[in-house]
Amino acid sequence: MKKDFKSLKETCFRSNRMLPESGLVLHTFGNASVVDRERNVFAIKPSGIAYEKLKPEDIVIVNFESEVVEGNLNPSSDTRTHACLYKAWKEIDGIVHTHSTYAVAWAQAQKDIPVLGTTHADHMAIDIPCTGIMSDEMIGGDYEHETGIQIVECLRKKRLAYQEIEMILVAGHGPFTWGTTADKAVYNSIMLEELARMAYLTLQINPEVPRLKESLIRKHYHRKHGEKAYYGQK
Amino acid sequence: MKKDFKSLKETCFRSNRMLPESGLVLHTFGNASVVDRERNVFAIKPSGIAYEKLKPEDIVIVNFESEVVEGNLNPSSDTRTHACLYKAWKEIDGIVHTHSTYAVAWAQAQKDIPVLGTTHADHMAIDIPCTGIMSDEMIGGDYEHETGIQIVECLRKKRLAYQEIEMILVAGHGPFTWGTTADKAVYNSIMLEELARMAYLTLQINPEVPRLKESLIRKHYHRKHGEKAYYGQK
Amino acid sequence: MKKDFKSLKETCFRSNRMLPESGLVLHTFGNASVVDRERNVFAIKPSGIAYEKLKPEDIVIVNFESEVVEGNLNPSSDTRTHACLYKAWKEIDGIVHTHSTYAVAWAQAQKDIPVLGTTHADHMAIDIPCTGIMSDEMIGGDYEHETGIQIVECLRKKRLAYQEIEMILVAGHGPFTWGTTADKAVYNSIMLEELARMAYLTLQINPEVPRLKESLIRKHYHRKHGEKAYYGQK
Amino acid sequence: MKKDFKSLKETCFRSNRMLPESGLVLHTFGNASVVDRERNVFAIKPSGIAYEKLKPEDIVIVNFESEVVEGNLNPSSDTRTHACLYKAWKEIDGIVHTHSTYAVAWAQAQKDIPVLGTTHADHMAIDIPCTGIMSDEMIGGDYEHETGIQIVECLRKKRLAYQEIEMILVAGHGPFTWGTTADKAVYNSIMLEELARMAYLTLQINPEVPRLKESLIRKHYHRKHGEKAYYGQK
Fold it and tell me: Does 3.40.225.10 match the CATH number of domain B3-225?
C-alpha cells in the first residue's frame, strides 16, 4: 500500500529553493532534506540538479538506509550524511548543507566561530564548532556516512546538545545546519553565514578582542530561549 | 477618550520597512520606533515578527513606562531601551536599532569608529562612540532599560550632545541611531553602516593612517551643520 | 538673449542618474556636471537633492565664476571645484565626484593606488594619484575652489597630464574623475571603484607584490591608447 | 561556398551574455569564444563592444590564424590567445576570459590558489596555477599569441593536463578558463571567482592553515570525476 509523498516533496522543494534565493548556493551545490518521522523516510534534493530547473516531482524519497523509496533521480551524494543525523537525533526534522562563502571560509580555516556578540548569543550560548579534519580511515570508508558520524561525535565530545547548537562546520568542507523543521534549518544556514561574516570582520578590526563575557551571552540566549524567554509572541 | 494612533502606526510601519529595503536587517532583527510627544507614547515594531509579514496594524503603541497602550502583539524586546532614550532626550522623535554587518563588527570589536574622512565629517565632527561592555549588575537587572542608561551615560561621560552625534555602538551588541524624525533615524543607520565599512577598509589598507585633521573635520561639519551652513537647499 | 539649456540639463541629469544605478553613491552624495564650452557654462546637480527625486529641470546652470545662470535651486556645494577644473583644463567636458566605498577608503588611507595589473594599465600607465592633506590656509579660505587648485597642482607636480590620468583621490575626502564627455567621466568613476577594490584585495593576499613591470604596463596602455592602438572598433 | 555560422554565433552570443549576468565583467571587459572543430573556425566577441549592446550578428568568426572569416567588426584583441589555445588543445570547445574581481586579485598577487577545501577539490585535485610574469621578449613580440603560449607552457611545466584543470591565472592580468563546451567554460569562470573569494577569506581568518590533505582532495575529486564517480545523474 503505497503512500503519497506529494506534501513531503513540496516542503523539501520549497526549502531547497530558498537556498539560492538567500544567496547561499552556487550552481548545483548544497541540499536540503525533510524527514517524515512516522514513515521513517526523508525527502532530499536529487544530485547535481541546478536549483532553477528543480521541480517538486524531482525530489527523491529515501529511507534511513539511504535507499530510494520513490523517485527517478539519484538522491544527493550527501544523502548518507543526512540519514546518519536523522537516525542519531530524533528531535530534528530538517537538515541543510550549503557551501555558503563565509561559513566555508571558517570551515577551511579549521576554526570554531567564537561568540563575539549578541547576534550570536541570541541564537546560541556557545561557539559554533568546527570538527577536526577526517581521518584517512573514515575518508577511505563510507565517506558520507562517516561525515555524519563525525558531526555527531564532535558534538558529543564537546558535550553540546544538538537541540541547542543546530549548526556545525565540517573542517575543510563546509556547514551543516538542522532544526525542528526544514524552515528552521534553512533559517539556521542563513544565520550561520551572517554570524561567520560578522566574526570575520570583527577579528579583522580587532584581532585581540575577547569572547563576549558569559553573563551577557547567557542573558541574550535566555531572553530568547530560556524558560522565562520574553522575545517574540506567545 | 481613546485617540487614533493610525497615523503614528503608519509612520512607524514605513520606517521599519525601510530597514530590510536598505539591507540593514536579516529575519526579524532590528526595530524602529516613532514618538508622539504630545501624548507621551511611541509606536514600535512587535517582537519577533518578520518584516515582510509586518502590517501597519501590527505596530504596538506603548507609553514611556513601556506599557502597551494599544496593540495585540508584544512590543519589541528592546522597547525599554527606546523608552529610556525618549525620556532622557526630549528632542528626538525616532529611534532605530539594527544588527547591520559592519556596525556590528565595530561594536563586537569594541572600538570607536574614528573620523577618517569627510564622509564622516559631513555628518559628525567626532568619532562614533562605542560603549564599554555592560557590568554584570546591569546585565542581571532590568537589562533593556540599563542598555538605555548605558547609552545616555556614555554620551554624558564623553561630553557628547545627542543632537550632534545621533548614533552609538553598544559594545558586543550593535548600533542604535536616533533623530528628530524617524526618517532621520533610518538615514543615520544607513549612514553608520557605510561609515563603518569605509573605516574598516581604510584601516586594512593603511593601519597607520591618523585621524582626519581637526580643521578639515570642522570645515566639512560646519558647511552642512553650522550657522553658516551652505550645503543643500534653504 | 536667453538660450535654451534643455539639452545640457538632460545630459547632466542622465549622468547624475547613472551614479546610483552604478552603486557609486548613497543618499544625496556625489555630483556630475557637463560643460558647454561655447557658452562657458556648465550644468550641475543641485545641492542636497536625493537622486531618486531629481528631475532634469532641477539641474542648475552656472558660469565659470560659479554664479547661477539658470535654475531655482542651489548648485552642488562642490560647484567651485568643478569650475576650477573646467577653467584649468580646456579638453574636458564632464566631471564626476562620488563617495564610492573603495575609492574613499584609499583616499582616507592617503595612498596612491599602484598599477598592479593590466586592468589598471588598460586605462592608465601610472598610479592613481592621491593628493596630500590640504593645508589649514586652503581649508580656511575658499575651500571648494582650493580643492580644485589642489587637484590641478597635484597633477602638475607629479608631471601627469589630465588627458591621460582622468582620475584622482583627494586625501581624506574621495575621488574626482573627468573626461572628454560626461559619460566618460562616469565610466571613469565606475572603473576607479573597481581598480580600488582589486588593488585592495591584491595587497591583502600578497602585501609584498611589486608594481606591475613597466614593459607590461606600456604594452596594455598602448594597445588601447597609443598611436598603434588595436583595441576596439575604428 | 559560404557556410552558415548562425548557430555558432548564437551560442557564442549566449555565452558572452552570461558573463555580465553572473557579475563577472564590467563595461566591455572579457570575452567568450566557441570553436567549430569541423570547420577550424571559432566565434568570438567583437573588441570593445558593451555586453548590453551586443547582438548575435555582431559576433565575429575567425580561423586559427586569427583572420576574420565572417563579420563586420574587429574581433576581441585577445583573439590570438584563444586561437593559440584551440590549436594546442584539441579537446576544448569553449574559452572564457574575464577580469572578475577575486580571480584578478590572485593573478595580481601572483600566487596560485591553493586547495583549501572540498569546494575546490570537487572541481580540481590541484592548486589553480598562476603563470610567471611574462618576459620582455614575449611582451614585445606577438603579445596575445605569447599569452597563449605562456598558458600552454605553464601547464606543461607543472605537468598539469588541460582536461583536468580547465582554468589558469595569467600573472598581473587575470583568469582564462576553458571546457569541452562554451557553457562549461563559463561555469568554470563563475566557479573560479568563488574559489578565489573563499581562499582569500580563509587565509585572512587563518594565514597558517595548511593545504587540504591529499586523501580528502582525492576523495572529493573522484566522487565527481573518477571512474567510479557517483555525483550527479547518469
Answer: yes
